[in-house]
Write a structure and sequence with these properties.
Layout (H helix, E strand, L loop, with lengths): L2 H23 L14 H28 L2 H33 L7 H22 L4 H15 L1 H11 L19 H43 L1
Helix pairs in contact: 1-7, 2-3, 2-5, 2-7, 3-4, 3-5, 3-7, 4-5, 4-6
Length: 225
């Protein structure tokens, strides 16, 4: 692992722990929901990190279709994996938050359903990538699907305004400004930034792992022949 990758990873984990520490011990509890509200500092950053991974996935898909280079497919695979991880984390923390708030772990709320659909799409992308043989066909099909996956992200975002939903309307990006207290908003935005960078770092780490595995396979094949 390159030194910069190690240093950046340590720095990101330190920043993440600092954000969680601030979320637990520095910012006040919510007036209506109490202490359980603190899970927002993990739930929302995870969801936005998943959306960011899907955006980069779509960019990689477009670049893959345009250039026909296998490198972009490697990045798409890494981003699909990290995006699925962040989506599952958002769903899990949402369920934990929903139990004391709504009285149930799960409901087929519009935002929950569309986020669950995103997890299915990302898992389907990975299954399709594994099922297709290496070559131009896999590159083209997976790249096209990468762009399609991202189409679910704006639907998730607008679901709270398009349909009746248990979720509250947007509190960060809205007309009239955020409804959150400044200190709570600062910690939340910091968590979002760190989680997005963590997603990119994890994808980068996964790309390095995949490329190393490919090199080892090539060397092993050459040695056997």
């Amino acid at each position: 692992m390159p030194r910069f990758m190690k240093v950046s990873g340590v720095a990101l984990w330190a920043c993440l722990l600092a954000v969680w520490g601030a979320a637990l011990f520095l910012v006040p509890a919510d007036q209506n929901q109490g202490e359980v509200y603190r899970i927002i500092y993990l739930h929302v950053p995870s969801a936005i990190a998943a959306f960011s991974a899907c955006f980069f996935l779509a960019v990689g898909g477009g670049m893959g279709l345009w250039s026909r280079r296998e490198t972009f497919l490697t990045w798409q695979r890494a981003l699909a994996e990290t995006g699925l991880l962040m989506t599952c984390l958002a769903l899990l923390t949402g369920a934990i938050w929903g139990k004391p708030t709504w009285g149930t772990w799960w409901t087929w709320d519009a935002r929950l359903t569309t986020t669950f659909l995103l997890a299915i799409l990302l898992a389907g992308w990975l299954m399709l990538h594994s099922a297709l043989p290496p070559g131009n066909q896999r590159l083209a099909v997976c790249s096209g699907l990468s762009i399609f996956v991202f189409a679910d992200v704006p639907i998730i975002y607008k679901s709270v305004t398009w349909w009746r939903t248990l979720h509250q309307p947007p509190t960060i990006i809205r007309s009239g400004g955020s409804t959150m207290a400044p200190e709570m908003l600062a910690v939340l935005l910091s968590g979002i930034a760190v989680m997005i960078l963590m997603t990119v770092w994890l994808a980068w780490l996964r790309v390095a792992s995949l490329e190393l595995g490919r090199e080892l396979e090539t060397q092993t094949g050459a040695a056997l022949t």
